[in-house]
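[Automated response] Your request has been received and processed.

Submitted sequence:
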Amino acid sequence: MSDDRVFEGSSLCVIGNINRDLKTARLRPGDYLFADGETSVASIIETIGGGGANSAFAAASLGARVAFLGKVGADALGDRLERTLTQHGIAAHLARTKDRASGTSIALAFDSGHRHFISCLPASQALRFSNLDLTILNGFRHLLRADVWFSEAMLFEGNKELFQTARRSGIPVSLDLNWDPQWGSGSATAIRARKKAIRDVLPWVNLAHGNVRELMEFADAPDLETALRCLADWGAEAVTVHLGAKGAGYYHQGSLIVSPPVPVTSQVNTTGTGDVLSVCLMLMHHREDLPIPERLRLANAIVAQFMEGSRLLIPPLGD
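Generated structure:
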């Protein structure tokens, strides 16, 4: 089966962040970045940003029917973000706020393979459950809640209502356990409360997603095996694991299935690979005819194409 035909008839409703990303070409990490001066890079490009938006565009590019729900400012950037969604065939349901600006992130990519994001996302942080028109869920095969840490109103109240609504409608739920900006900088009390808020909604989650470092930090676990057991004990049905150079994994009923990565000749895209991997698994979630190893193999192949630049899954920001 071709990589594209497997997604025929799939659909995804995404709730998360949408913002502008300014992405640098790879640069050398070092203390010189903290000193006065200037560093030249080969390129700085402006693209769509936000884990939710990246996922929505990736799904639409793979042929899925996609809706996106989020919050932007009542400003020119918000207009550009909405137009870019609709230009790529995504049904945009964006709440607007005059009090908060649309967001921007600066994505620093290092030649060591590490990344660092500097973000200002005031509109996304203001997202509330009351901003979401969940009548549009009807007819969708899957719901993704991305960027789960940014809105405290959703973190401590709205996510539970959202997930219960979806599951009552028979719609499977994915949750992206990405990096909480407060990890490492917030108080221990606040971090515990935030982690507990997510652990409490895991019984309504069919697929949790994250890389090894994120999953271990979220679970306060010394290794991946312990983290995966914790997620299952807290109620998550299955976990998609981003293993980087080791490929991708799928944890279900106490067993981790791993598929090696597809080799790439060059790396054009350094951000968004985890979003692409997770989206592929979401879109194949209903394909009971496909065994898990085959789903992982297909997902890894598409991630490789995205990394090499042969698949444009996350577009530039439109005018």
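Summary generated for your ticket: The mean pLDDT is 94. Residues 5-17+51-101+124-308 form a domain with the UDP-N-acetylmuramoyl-L-alanine:D-glutamate ligase fold (CATH 3.40.1190.20).
If you did not submit this request, please reply to this message.
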